[in-house]
Each structure stands twice: as C-alpha cells, then as structure tokens.
Design goal:
Helix content: 10-25%
CATH class: Alpha Beta
Oligomer: single chain
Order of helices and strands: HEHEEEHEEEHEEEEEHEH
CATH architecture: 3-Layer(aba) Sandwich
Largest sheet: 10 strands, mixed
Radius of gyration: 17 Å
Number of helices: 6
Shape: globular
CATH superfamily: Glutaconate Coenzyme A-transferase
Number of strands: 13
Length: 217
C-alpha cells in the first residue's frame, strides 16, 4: 500500500464509530476510503454533514467539499449555510478534525497553511478546526520532499493555531500528546527507533512498550 494510503488507513483505525469528522485537504481526504459510510458522519465546512464518495458517472459539479472535490451525499445528509457550518465547528460539535501539516512542533503547534515566498490559497477553515474540534489528528509524511523533518522543535512556517495536535500519524510513526509532550507510541512499516530519532528534531518520549522492544539488530 502506498505511503499516503497507508497513513489514511491507519488514521481511520483511530476513529470511534458514529463520530462527526472533518477531513482536511490532501491525505485526510483519503481517510474516507477506509470508513464504513454508515458508521461515521463526514462534515465539510462549506456546509454539509453526510459527505460520502461518489462515482464519476454520478458527479454533480455543484456538490463539492471544501477542497472543491466532487462528493456524494449519504442517506440522511443535511445542508446548511457555511456560517452555520463554522458555528458547528466553533461550538465544539465536530468530534475529530483530520488535517495535513507542513510542520508540527514540540509544543504541539501546527503550521499548515503558508510557506513564505510561495503562493498558497490561504488558511481556509484550518484555524477554526484546530480551535473548535474536540480532537485533532495530523496525517503527514514524516519528512518533506527534501528530506527535512516535519516534526520539529519549533515551527519555522506560520503557525495555524496554538492548539495542540492530539495525534500525529506519519508513514513512519504514531505520536500522541500525553501530559506535557509527545510520546512515540508506534513504529510503522520497517521504521526503527533510530530512524525516528534521526528524522525528528522535536523532543519526544518513547513509550515503555516500544522502549522495551528496542530496535531489531
């Protein structure tokens, strides 16, 4: 399974049935492929609850998610004004927001909307989701295309929100915010503790279970 799909599948495994979930742009949109459409409620900030996948022959050009991708409507789906949708987010009625990230730092802050010197659409609903959703899950590759770490000591890109991300799922590892910092709770694929240490500049702790296993020799 390709890296992005594997990240999305692992994220889906972390979700509680019957949660209201908002999927960000990129890897997060793939999470829907691994969810039972009858057991989860997908929300999009442009004003729909009950988002589902759609076959190409059934695409309605007027029915899109916040990333302007075609979507379908689940049985019982509802539509509302985008202002009401954001009120739903800000009011704490979204259980989980799954977002991509350019960087996440040791304080749990997320940078995912701007790269200095590059033309990017903007922050969209990310800052509202980071503040209003009950749980924040970040799905991202562990390093950027040039090999630089994405889980860093301090964000060098503009921070989206000071709200801490609860879970980070990458192609190499899973981190969870526990007490006052991130704990490495899972190695993914063929990743090793040494590899994670080399590709992560943020401070983190290793769970007792992983520490006990150590790296294969």
């Amino acid at each position: 399974m390709a890296g992005k799909e594997a990240i999305a599948k692992r994220a889906a495994e972390d979700l509680e049935p019957f949660s209201i979930i908002n999927l960000g742009i990129g890897v997060p949109t793939l999470v829907a492929n691994y969810l039972d459409k009858d057991s989860y409620y997908l929300h999009t900030e442009n004003g729909m609850l009950g988002v589902t996948s759609v076959e190409e022959v059934e695409v309605d050009p007027l029915l899109v998610n916040a990333g302007k991708l075609p979507v379908g409507e689940a049985v019982g789906a509802s539509y509302f004004h985008s202002a009401d949708s954001f009120a739903m987010i800000r009011g704490g009625h979204v259980d989980v927001a799954i977002l991509g990230a350019l960087q996440v730092d040791a304080a749990g802050r997320v940078a995912n909307w701007a790269v200095p010197g590059k033309d990017i659409i903007g922050v969209g609903g990310a800052m509202d989701l980071l503040v209003g959703a009950k749980k924040i899950m970040i799905t991202t590759n562990h390093v950027s295309k040039d090999g630089s770490p994405k889980i860093v000591d301090a964000c060098t890109y503009p921070v989206t929100s000071t709200r801490k991300a609860d879970v980070i799922i990458t192609d190499l590892a899973v981190f969870r915010w526990i007490d006052d910092g991130y704990v490495l709770t899972e190695l993914r694929g063929e990743a090793t503790l040494q590899e994670i240490a080399e590709k992560t500049t943020a401070a983190y702790r290793v769970s007792e279970e992983l520490a006990a296993k150590g790296d294969p020799t």
